Amino acid sequence: MNAQVSSDAGIAASKGVFIDNHWSPAASGKEIDVVAPAEGRVFARIAAGGPEDIDRAVKAARRAYEGEWGKLAAFERGRLLARLGLLILDNADELAALEARDCGKPMKQAWADIAACARYFEFYGGAADKWHGTTIPFLNGYFVATEREPHGVIGHVIPWNYPAQMYGRTLGPALAAGNAVVMKPAEEACLTPLRLTELAAEAGFPAGAINVVPGLGPEAGQALISHPGVDFLSFTGSPEIGVLVQTEAAKNHIACTLELGGKSPQIVFSDVDLDEALPTLVNAIVQNAGQTCSAGSRLLVERSGYDRIVGAVAERFGKLQAGTPDMDLDLGPLISLRQKGRVESFCAKAADDGIAVLAEGKIAEGAPENGFFVAPRLFGPVPQANSLAREEVFGPILSVIPFEDEADALTIANGTDYGLIAGVWSSNAKRATRVARKVRAGQVYINAYGAGGGVELPFGGVRKSGHGREKGFEALHDFTTLKTLVFKHD
Ligand code: NAD
Known about the structure:
By secondary structure, this protein is of the alpha/beta class. It folds into 2 domains: about 15-260, 3-Layer(aba) Sandwich (Aldehyde Dehydrogenase, Chain A, domain 1), CATH 3.40.605.10; about 265-455, Aldehyde Dehydrogenase, Chain A, domain 2. It is built from 16 helices and 22 strands. The strands form 6 sheets. A 7-stranded mixed beta sheet has the order 15-17-18-13-12-19-20, with helices on both faces. Strands 9-8-7-10-11-21 form a 6-stranded mixed beta sheet, sandwiched between helices. Strand 10 (about 230-235), helix 9 and strand 11 (about 255-260) form a beta-alpha-beta unit. Helix 3 crosses helix 7 (about 190-205). Residues about 1-10 have low confidence and may be disordered. The site of nicotinamide-adenine-dinucleotide has 26 residues, from helix 8, helix 9 and helix 12.
């Protein structure tokens, strides 16, 4: 039961929208071409879902929530999630190949993404029956308990950078908590979410528990975020669409979680153990070609160690290579021509502003000319006021910014509108702890950098990076609401 089937032209045909555990064509009958980023050519088609399909999916989710799915005990939901986790591992070869081709990412990254996706279902499978309320001491003669309840039907809109991980990250906790879901994945890359939903049906999820409607943002996406039958929204993507999601949520008087990316700093003091730090400092921006919400895109370096640290980073940067998934190099292409253009325009502006390129990696020999490759680049020193130091580029571009001392490092680190994650590198544990506690971000690493970290670690931002927490038990908090039950017994 593959999500895509081969057609005569060598282009995998669309199977449609997945509602009530069945494929059907989009109501419009329209389809969208899917381009392989490393090849720059169409290799698949997906359905262009729209308002009618979304309406059908939301109604299917409601039926499931009020019916078979909603009646399952927590441990039974957990068992289904765990079964899906195992099925993902059983099908990891196929899923990783699909993810790699759809996103252009190196095979090792695609493997890691599928393994992470499986971990979400394992983790939340185990958590489903361990998330509970409390009792509250109140007046004599009363017994008070709280209960965590699902919201009902949740609308999930996810981006194209980590489709498989996003699927696990947002659906895992939503389902564990007992919600029924409708997902609108990104039109640029959603073949893995479609395939994963087939696997979910195979794992035994009842009809309507998980519905996936691919389509364009302003059509299927807009229909989902504004649908009055949706009880909660979960969005990952750009701050601009995040504002739209929050506005639509407000109109329907519902809440939402927003994960909107960042401009995350890695703060490197002169006493850093450079040998240990170097691979991580570079990988934090190169992973997934920099198209990672938690990419370490600003390298803040203490002035007293600037030449030594930046020299070592530049040397490593210059050896980086971009290539196809099968070449399995340091990074792949960007997702689209549009994204490549966006990244290149940041680089062109930096050149116009007189910012030096300290090192530049390569596009590997043999990488297809039509692929959306961009050579990784290290810019510096980047003035704090420059757009390269403030805006999310979402590409393999690292900005080096010098700082004088601890206070200066914090001013710069906290000097953007974002606040998703941060890294602090120092051999002085007290200083590293002090700085980490003052950085404005949802997650801070000390002598490490996890690009979002493991499934267990609560993750999310402040201000322009969004709000709400995903991962860990915290996600179950956001995907449930609290009811207080007051019993008078005397
Ligand atoms: P986007 O916000 O437009 O797309 C993300 C998701 O939102 C996709 O599924 C898209 O179809 C959907 N969407 C778009 N318009 C919508 C609408 N009107 N209503 C509902 N859903 C809608 O992001 P993008 O255009 O793909 O990328 C632009 C920039 O956003 C990137 O360069 C990057 O800086 C940032 N971005 C961040 C993340 C992240 O993980 N935080 C992911 C992707 C992109």
